[in-house]
Each structure stands twice: as C-alpha cells, then as structure tokens.
Amino acid sequence: MIVMKFGGTSVGSADALRQVAAIVRRELDAQQTRPGVVVVTSAMSGVTDLLSAAAQAAANADHDRTEATCNLLRAQHAEVTETLIDDADVRWRLTEELEETIRQLRRVLDSIAVLGELTPRGNDWICGTGEQVMAPLLTEVLRSAGIAAVHANARSLIVTDDNFGAAEPLVSETESRCQTQLTPLLAQGRAVVTGGFIASTFDGLHTTLGRGGSDYSAAILGAALDADEIQIWTDVSGVKTADPKVVPDARSLREITFPEIAELAYYGARVIHPKTVRPAIRKGIGLRVLNTFEPDHAGTRVIADEHRARQAGIKAISAIRDMNMIMIEGRGMIGVPGIAARAFRAVSDVNANVLMISQSSSEQSICFVVPDDSADMVINALRREFSMELDRGYIERIDGDPDIVIVAAVGQAIRHTPGIAARVFSALGDARINVVSIAQGASDTMISLVVVRDAADAAVNALHQAFNLAQPTG
Ligand code: ADP
Ligand code: ASP
Ligand code: MG
User: pTM, whole model, 2 decimals?
Assistant: First the structure.
C-alpha cells in the first residue's frame, strides 16, 4: 500500500490527468502483497494563488475580481469534466457539486467583503477550495479510466489544531480516522483519492497545512496508514542539484538523505514541502520524488543518513527569496546583558520565523533574517520592546533590509570536509557577488549566506559550477 501525491501541474490539464491515471493504474496492476493506493491531489496549478488573491480582493470589496475567480474556477474544472468524463450522469453530478461549492465560496467571499476584513480562518476556507473540488473530479477521472477509485474527504481524515494557515495534525486522532475510514477500502485494492493541503479542526473548522502543504498531507496519511512508500509526483525528475528554472543544467540526484532534503526544502527548494520528511522519518517510510511527465525516470530516493555519511560534500544549492534582514544597532548595547534575549523574545511573541542569525551579530549589532511579509510586524515589536533604549540613544537604529535572498549550499558532513567554505566564498568573489552576511556557525549539512535579490540567481549558478554539480559523481 503506497501513497502517491500529484502536484498542481500533474493535475493541471486533461492531458496531465490522463498521465496520472496511467501511473495509478500501473501501480495498482503491479501490487502484489499489500494492495491499495492513497492518491493525494493538489489543486490545479495556479488555482490556490488565484483563490488567495480573491480572498484579498474580497477584503478590498473588489467584487469584479472575486467574480472573475469564481468564473475561472468553473471554466477550468468544467473543461476537464467535459474532456475526460464520458458518463453523462457523472458529468451532471460533478457539475452540480462544483456549482454548490462555487455558491458557498461566493457566500464566504461576500461576507468578507461586508466585514472588510480577511482573517486567517476565512483565508483557509477560501484557499482550500481548489483541493476540495479537484479530489472528487480526479476520482471520476480515474473511474472513467477503469480504476476502482473512491473519494475520501480530507477534511474528515486529517484533524488539526486551529493554527489557521499552518495547522498541525493531531496525530492519534488522524491515525484512528484514517485507519477506520480507509483501511477497508485499501484492502480491496482500491485507489482512495483525497485532497492535499486541507484539513479541519476537531470542531470541523476548515484549516490548511500551509502553502505547498499537499506533500505534507501525503506524509501525514502515509504515516497514519503505515504505508510502504510515499511518492511525490511532480513536474521535474526528482530532486535536482538546483532549481532547474534557475540552473538549466541542474542534474537529478539519485539519492538524498533526510537531513539534506530537510535543509534544501527549508531553504527554498519547493520541490518538496519542508514538513514532509518528519512523518516519514517517524515511521521509517521510504520517500521518492518522481516526474509525472517522465514516469520511467527513477527520480530521487530519500534515504536515512547513516547509509550515506561517507559521501561528503555539497550536493545541491537552493535559494529562499522574499526575505528581510533585520538589524538592531547601537554602541550602547555593549556590555548590557540580555539584549539578544529580549530581541528574540519580542520576535517570538509576534510568531515570526527567524531563518538565519547572521555572523555579523556582535555586541554592537544583532542581525537576523525573517520573511519579508513579517518584517513590519517584527520591526514594530522590536521598537516597542526597546523604546527606552532608542529614546536614550543606546540603540541607534532598528531597521529592515528588504529584497534579501538566503542562498544555501547543502550536503553531508560539511563541517568535517576541509575547504568547503573557502570554495563557496572564492566562487562568489570570482563572480563579483557581494555577500551581505553569512550564517553563524555552519551546520553539518549546510552553509548559508545572504545576497541581494538581483544577485541571487548568479550566486546559485556560481556555487553550482564551483562544486561541479552538473557532472555526475559516479
Ligand atoms: P507541485 O505542484 O508538483 O507540488 P512545485 O511547483 O511545488 O510542484 O515544485 C516543483 C518545482 O520545484 C519544480 O518545477 C522546480 O522549479 C522547483 N524546484 C526548486 N528547487 C528544486 C530542486 N532542487 N530540484 C527540483 N525542483 C526544484
Ligand atoms: N495547492 C496548494 C498550494 O498551491 C497546496 C499544494 O499545491 O501543495 O499551496
Ligand atoms: Mg508543491
């Protein structure tokens, strides 16, 4: 029994969906011992972005925009239904269900427009609509292709806390629901189709697991059901040595360790959601990243690190964009205990995520990187915390530097391999790229540094070349 997750591009057109059906059928035909497949689907590509923009538009009472989104949602799904579903009764039922979902979506968008306020709870309700309509549609696409598929509502399978926008599963409740609802269906060798990304609280409020979270759904379900493998089917042939959209000669990695992929994902390689690895490690379930459009390619196998510890060195480069470097500066901080502790407490009180603390932190300055969209909140919190020090001039400024990108070089046993840092900095120096800041103390699996946005692609390419990542390592 395995879990197969298909991303937005994989379900983004009738042609892609035919491909998905062929992949699921091949898997079911090949199964011998534990039968059954859980198919986790994303929304069609672009749909979640569209819904998220519509939610914002509703808060601004932009009725034309919200209406256009509803119409586009209808058109995209109707086209697939018309093209791939032969049975007229099924087509009619899917159309009715889609219309009902759109009616509800309109009601929620209208109420946000009346209030003039978009809450994280409202946002989750709206953003989850793409998966909510895609899962029953994919179920029927598979059935039309002769596969014994059945839909299971993700919102009654995955139970989460109420941290809207980045909800976390309640593991034992989720496990017991999955086992009760899905095990009998899987034992019959069926394909159970469910939406990724979406879940609900114990009280039935709609939540999401965060952008890109369908991968995480697949891992949660895989762990809950003790799957034999979790497969992430996407639009590239596995995890590559860099984002192929930035480095055209990036190469597919045959294997990568859990710690390596966790760092890569955390630092921007969105081929897999960073939280995906945790449930897989917890249950010791194999993870593979595969290409829907090149299904015979072996893709990338994610393995436990012990086996590979000997393969030291940099394996891949990633970049995480839209960051902001926060600086607290002032000579009056010298010798005053507790400034850093107060600063980071203030940051954690506003729930901001610190991605990197920079080496230039000294007694005269503290420097760290947060996502740009939380920068204003962080700066305001720090100015409140240090208002007295600012008034008296002990702290001279608290500011943010936007348009910052963190570039990370990821590999195994970096600390124990001499010369890696030197190679990183000489490659960037040769390419005349200015390093704004470097991380305090490289971890054993990663070196990260900060560059300005306009230099990010050049930095990724320079490092990719410096470590000869386009060449197979044998
Ligand atoms: P899906 O919709 O299937 O979840 P995503 O767009 O979320 O797909 O992730 C796949 C994309 O991740 C690829 O198209 C690629 O541009 C990007 N990507 C970034 N870094 C890497 C990497 N190291 N290896 C492969 N793909 C990467
Ligand atoms: N559709 C969601 C998103 O775009 C979840 C996902 O694709 O994984 O963020
Ligand atoms: Mg994704």
Answer: 0.94
